[in-house]
Every structure is written in structure tokens, then in C-alpha cells.
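Posting this for the archive.
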Amino acid sequence: MTCCENDPHFCQTLLDAIPSPIFYKDVHGRYLGCNRAFAEFLDLPRERIIGRTAREVAPPKTATVYQASDRDLLKKNGSLAYESRVADLAGNEHHVLFNKATFPAADGTIAGIVGIVTDISEQKRTEEFLAGQTSFLRTIVESLPYPFYVIDVRDYSIVMANSCLSPDDSWQGRTCYQLTHHSETPCGGAEHVCPLQEVLRTRKPVTTEHIHYTHQGEMRYMEVSGYPVFDKQGEIVQLIEYAKDITELKKAEQERIALEERLRQANKMEAIGTLAGGIAHDFNNILTAILGYADMVRETLTPDSQAGQDIEQVLRAGRRARDLVRHILQFSRQSERDHGPLQVHLFVKEALKLMRAVIPANIEIRQDIDPKCGTVLSDPTEIHQIVMNLCTNAAHAMEQHGGILEVGLSRVTLSAADTARHPGTEPGHYVLLRVADTGTGMDAEIIKRIFDPYFTTKKKGEGTGMGLSVVHGIVKNHGGIVTAQSTPGQGSVFQVYFPRVEIPAPAVQPQEDANVAGDETILLVDDEKVLAEMEQRILERLGYHVESRVSSIEALQAFRANPMKFDLVITDQAMPNMTGVELARELLAIRPDLPIILCTGFSKQINEANARSLGIRAFIMKPLLKSEIAKVIRQVLGENGVLPPGTA
């Protein structure tokens, strides 16, 4: 200060060199001096400032602010900094920062005030602009219909979030995994890729699917996108994330997949139907030969002989195979089966007899069947299917090391609590079929899918995965319940509950063979020579005179040669050159009163109704036993007024 005291000109030059406005005044508020920048700030020459007070050089409102702050400073005797909006004499408003301090006199008293004015108008405009931009950004963020938040990569803490993530600002002081996953540790692993970790690894934006939880604990599927925020050094310091709720999209996708799966299953079922129809004719022809020749062999044996009992089992199995083919055809057409009252224990026992022949000897079958378990509304073939599928499944589980197969049948009562877990079922009386094995068992994941169509744990060539699905479908069609329990290494237990009914099952009537023989002349037509020969032998054993043809063209020629020779025509449907229906039309054109029986293993083109509309007297499905075809023949001839031999 010595230089300034000795050389006021130097002091003024020094002040003028400072770009910020500087002034100093006495304790009465009169300006003692200022620099050029202050004079320019007030837009006044220096001589109009020196010796005057603020009220003389500034607008009244601004002067009031100056004087009030000066009084406060003089009382405190120190320094003071404050911001204020001030206007110059021209009315131009400035946002300024005042830094003022008292300065002492030679005697130590306060001589006056020195001040520096910093015009921060531009800074304030920038701050206001940034505040506006921040507010605008906040509005944009708040307007987003999904959670938006910014994460500090150092500790996963959330530094900014919108109300979709947390409507009550509860995000403050919490991590992203605490808020979105209700977890105390960051997510990770292949199934739950952490966006933050992935962005740090790749240094690129990332999008992944996550499961988030709402404040109420509701699980939602979210598509989470993360974008890195870099500092000047190129380091990632923050992560911007937003999460779109795709729960409904996921549900729609799952429904689409389920619909496609149902469509695939429908296509498979259609393929099964086509395949079943394609093989049914040939398969039924095979069964016709098996049953026909077995039936003729039975007639040569005594019922009590071992061979007689064995051939009876062949016939019984053949009849079941025949019924099964018919059931497959009905199943492939998705048609309803007629259910009637059955003493279910009889058919379970019958199925087990058939199973004993195909189950390996190292598997012991134990039966606990209550003959008084009751009656159910069902179909014998469906009972056979259920028992044989469950037992076959159990046998596969024990085929390596053997074991015990337990089959039980009992009556039970289910309460409302029991049936509540099974929609579509009612509490009441049931017949319980229980099939247990000591095989390899299954884990919980397999149990969940065990009844799904085409799901199988078997190796290629060991099965199709349809068996348990068929069981499930049959049981559901009965209004019943099927359950499975299993533990790996400890075997499995399947329980089937059939609703029990009080309707008495009809007694099984012995087949009557009286009045089924005849001596009429029959024209037999079948393009399968083996079947034609067998059927001719059966009919001749019944007393009929039979002429057989393996060509429908030859049969028509034989009939034309002598139309009145034949009392009845029995013809197959599926034949080359001329089908059975076409042959029937030609024959009826020659002789309209001719009785005709049409046989088929399977046909999409003809059924009983339209066969009768063509004048065909009977429509029968192969294979038929001797007693069955004999009854049909007598019925058809009886319609024509022809009585069996020996009747008056």
C-alpha cells in the first residue's frame, strides 16, 4: 500500500487494470473512489460518482439494497458477500455478486467500505437455462410410462429415478437390485444377466430380459436397457437404465406358443387318424384271419384242455385287439365313446392276465383287487388301455433290475378338500385304481410333464410318449382324477380315481349259438384269398352253400349268369377294379330284393347309414367271430322272410 499512498496515480492505474468493478466509500456512504470498470458498470463518468451516495448514482430500488447491506456490514465490521439484482441508470438489470469489507482508519476505527462487484448475469442465465433443461428433462423422464433410473456403477446405488420406479422417492439410498429384485445381492448368471456388469464388460449399451417385482410383490417380466455414461477420462461412471413391462407380451407369446403346440398336436392327431385309417383295413384283415382260424381250432379242442384254454386266451386277446383298433379309429376322429356301467374289477383282472404274458419274468405282479369296489361308467377297451399303459410304463421302469408291480382296486370317498385341487371333479364316491412300481422313479420336473402328449424319457425306439397322455385323456373324459407321485430311485405310484355309480352293471350273458346255422347259398367276395378261403370254411361249417370269388368283376359275372342262384351276397368293401359298394349297385340293379352284407376293415367313404340308403341290408366291421357273422346272416335273411332250418 506504500506505493499507493505515495503515488495515487499508480494506485488508480492499478485499480483501473482490474476488470471487475471496484469501489470504496466512507462510513457515510459517499464514494471515495472507484475504478474504470465500476464507472462503466454504473454507466457514469467517475467525477459524477466520487463524493456522491448510492441514492445519487443509482436507481432508488438499487440504492436501497446498497445502503441496507452497507449498514449491516458497518455493524458487523468484517466482510459480506451477497447476490442481488441491480439496475443501472438506464434501467438495465444485472445479476451481480457483491463482495464487501470494511477498511480501517489510521486510528483503528472503521474508515469505510471497499467492494468488488462481479456481474454474474451470464452465469445466472446459464444456470437458469440448465435448470430449465433439468426441469424439462425431469418432465420427460416423469412422462415415460416405464421405470427410468440412473445407477452409480461403483455401488449400484440409484442417483435418479422417476415415479414409475418409485412413486414416493423411496429409491433414495437404495440399490437397483434392492428396489427391482427385492434382493440384497446383485443379479447374475446366464439366466439373469446384470445390465450394469454387462455394460462394464462390453462398454456398450445392452438390452436383456429380467424379472422385476412391484412394491406389492407382483412379479413382472421386464425388458431392461442399459446405457453407459462416461467421464472425461473415458471411464464409465453411471448407467442409465429403463425397463419396459413386457408381461402381457410374454403372456401373449406363451399363448401363441401354446396355440402353436395345440396346432401341432392337432396336426399330429390328424396324422395319427390318417395313419390309423390307412392301417386299420390291413390290420383288421390280419385279425380276421387270426380270430377266424383260432375260432375253428377251438371247435376241435375240449374247453378243459390246456390247448383249449390257450386258444381261448388268443381269442380274448384278438377281440381286445379288434376293440382297440376300433377305439383308435374313434380316437383319431375325436368321437365320443358310449360309456356304460361296468364291474371294473373284471376288466382290470382281464388286462392283468394279458399283461403277465408280456411283462418280463423278473417283475413280480401283486394284485389287491376288491371285487366289491363298485361300478363305473366306462368302456372295457378304455379300462384295458389305462391298465396296460400304466403297467407297461411301470415295467419299463423296472426292466433292468426287475422289481415289484402292485395293482390295487378299491372303493374310496373323496372330500371337497380332496377334489379342490382337481378342477372339474366333484366330491363323492370313487373307485381307486393304484399302480405302483419299485423302478427308477422320476424327479419333480419330469412329474410336471409326465402327462403331456409326446413327452417321454424313453430312448429312441422305446416309446412315443403317448401312453400316459392317453391315460390322462381317458380319465378326464370319465370326470376322474389321475395323479403321479415318485422319488428318484424309489419307484412311482399312479392313482386313478373313477367316479363310482350305483347303476348295476349288466350280467355277462353267455353267447347263444342256437338258430344261427342255415342251408342257403351265399356268394362270398373278398380279394384277400386267405380270408376268402377261411370265411368260406366258417360259413360251410354253419351249413351254408358257399361260392367264393377273389375278384368283384368275376363275382358280378357269376351273379349275372344265374341271379336267382344266390340267397345272400357277402362282399368286402376295399377291392381293386370295383369296390363293394359299386358291386352292390350292379347286383341290386339286376335283382333289387337281393340281401347284401357289406364288410370292411375301415372306410371313409361308406358307413352304416349310407350303406342302408343304397339298399345294403347290413354293414359290419371286420373282424367278426363265427357266432357274430352267423347272427348277422340270420338277421338279414330273416328280413327277407327266410327262416333258419328246422323252424316252422
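The radius of gyration is 51 Å. Confidence is low (pLDDT under 50) at residues 460-465.
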